[in-house]
Design a protein that fits this description.
The chain has four helices and six strands, in the order βαβαβαβαββ. With 153 residues, the chain is an alpha/beta fold. A six-stranded mixed sheet has the order 3-2-4-1-5-6, with helices on both faces. α1 runs parallel beside α2. The longest helix is centred in the N-terminal third of the chain and has 16 residues.
Length: 153
């Protein structure tokens, strides 16, 4: 069982785009990471996003590369300050799900799943990066299986 957490790609500042769609660099990094994931044979069944323009655009870029059979869907509960504990049960029931959202939600979700405490950081997300979480075969607890980030360091 694996789930994929993605922080949306880099967005334009609000004064350039009130909807804060993806910046050219955000598009490029999202396409690059999605292509690497496809090259590794990452299997995503569905991509869900927050509905904000930058998350939708990132989800569509990932969908183009990964071809999820259940498509792309807007989902409530993924806004930056939404309750991760309320959303977490959805991840238990949906292996192969990729969620595309925002900080601090994505970092808090990873922390909550791994430690049970959303305020105890376990991973530093980057725009357009993927963090793959899965259940440890011996303990059944969530662990980071792997990550793909646009920048190293």
């Amino acid at each position: 069982m694996a789930v994929y957490l993605v922080q949306h790609g880099k967005s334009l500042p609000k004064d350039q785009d009130p909807d804060q769609g993806l910046a050219p660099l955000g598009i490029e990094e999202s396409e690059r990471i999605a292509g690497v994931a496809a090259g590794y044979g990452v299997k995503v069944l569905q991509i869900r996003h927050s509905g904000k323009t930058r998350a939708l655009q990132t989800a569509e870029i990932f969908a183009k590369a990964l071809n999820p059979p259940d498509g792309v869907e807007e989902t409530t509960g993924l806004k930056p300050m939404d309750d991760v504990a309320a959303f977490a049960p959805m991840l238990e029931d949906n292996p192969g799900l990729m969620i595309v959202g925002h900080l601090p939600f994505m970092e808090r979700m990873a922390s909550y799943l791994i430690t049970g405490n959303p305020d105890r950081p376990v991973f530093r997300f980057q725009n357009a990066g993927i963090v793959c979480l899965g259940k440890h075969p011996d303990t059944g607890t969530w662990v980071v299986k792997w990550a793909l980030m646009p920048n190293v360091g």
